[in-house]
Amino acid sequence: MQFRLTTDRQARSFSASSTLTAPSNEPFKTHLPVKHSEPTVHSFYHKSTSTFSYVVAGSPYDAESGVLDVVIIDSVLDYDAASGSVTTESADGLMSFCAAQNYRVTAVLETHAHADHLSAGFYISRSLHVGHLNRVANPPLIIGKGIEEVQRRFAPRYGLTQGDLQGSFDLLIDEKMNLRVGNSRINAIHLPGHTPDHMGYQIGENIFTGDVVFLPDVGSARADFPGGSADLLRASIHRLLDASPQTRLYVGHDYPPPSRADPKCFSTISETQHENVHLKNMDDFVQRRLIRDKELAAPRLLHPSLQVNIRGGRLPPPGPDGVSRMQIPLTAGSANLL
Ligand SMILES: [Fe+2]
């Protein structure tokens, strides 16, 4: 089987063992660093949810064996809401890709509790073990400390108890924690506004921003979820833009407008500052964000995503029949329908 990788500079391909499966979340691309010492970034686009997942390779762990340490950021489960089917092709593809590249996954990171896709974080963390596609047993599943607030807010809505939330993540981080991938430092940057738990991860001259700003022709993330704040989002954007102009901002989603054919995963700080359609005038950013958010419909996978993602990507606890079921809180206005 042959994977085809398209790099920013040139196309290249590599062979993989026949037991590996190609990621289904194509197109995926490799973004080579400008400087040799910088990490290499692989992006994977999950078409049905417009989500980018990333595999980020730090500087060499073991130059002799060629093994590189990597982290996986914002992985996705394949979920079909109509049938209730949850499958793992995309996540399996990510793990196969890492194995074929001789990568060692040392951590599985979440930027936030997503409301538009189901996270594969728990599945990947628990699937990787020594001798099976990886050399680190169960790399930790990591998210920002603010997840506790998100869990407190949403667990009762979905009938989840404190016990149901136990063990959902391996490590809750704040900005003071020292994370590394290979010899590269990972700076966690708290970027609330879209959600309270939101973290960006800076690795070299790359920041994995999750949902803060998007590509310049798309704009910025919504700030109307419970616990969200347009004011905080504005402050988080200012914080992001403090980085050096050539820093790449890797986004959590891309929704290409009709004028652009293909999804793209990053723009530089400089491009974001000068070209982002939502950042042209930051004086009235908050007001414009509030108006726009009132017009937006709820994300298609809002309820399934939240009840799975506040548990790290685990399905709801099964009932007595062993079947897991999603809960959808209904609103009926003033109509008496009960
Ligand atoms: Fe989000």
What does this structure look like?
This protein has 338 residues and is of the alpha/beta class. The protein contains 8 helices and 19 strands. The protein has one domain: Ribonuclease Z/Hydroxyacylglutathione hydrolase-like (Metallo-beta-lactamase, Chain A, 4-Layer Sandwich), CATH 3.60.15.10. The longest helix is centred in the N-terminal third of the chain and has 12 residues. The radius of gyration is 20 Å and the shape is globular.
The percent range for helix content is 10-25%
Order of helices and strands: EEEEEEEEHEHEEEHHEEEEEHEEHHH
Mind describing the biggest β-sheet? 9 strands, mixed
Q: How many individual domains? A: 1
Share in β-strands: 25-35%
Molecules bound to protein: fe (ii) ion
**Distance between the ends:** 56 Å
CATH architecture assignment: 4-Layer Sandwich
What is the third-level CATH name, the topology? Metallo-beta-lactamase, Chain A
Number of strands: 19
Outline of the structure:
It contains eight helices and 19 strands. With 338 residues, the protein is α/β, with parallel strands linked by helices.
Which properties best describe this structure?
338 residues, alpha/beta, Metallo-beta-lactamase, Chain A, nine-stranded mixed sheet, six-stranded mixed sheet, 8 helices, globular, disordered N terminus, binds fe (ii) ion
Write the layout of secondary structure elements.
Layout lengths: L1 E6 L3 E5 L12 E4 L8 E7 L4 E7 L10 E6 L4 E3 L4 E3 L1 H12 L2 E7 L11 H7 L1 E2 L2 E2 L6 E4 L2 H8 L7 H4 L5 E3 L5 E3 L2 E7 L8 E5 L2 E5 L19 H11 L7 E4 L14 E3 H7 L9 H11 L6 H8 L29
Parallel strand pairs: 1-3, 6-9, 9-12, 10-11, 12-13, 17-18
Antiparallel strand pairs: 1-2, 3-4, 4-5, 5-6, 7-8, 14-15, 15-16, 16-17, 18-19
Bound molecules: fe (ii) ion.
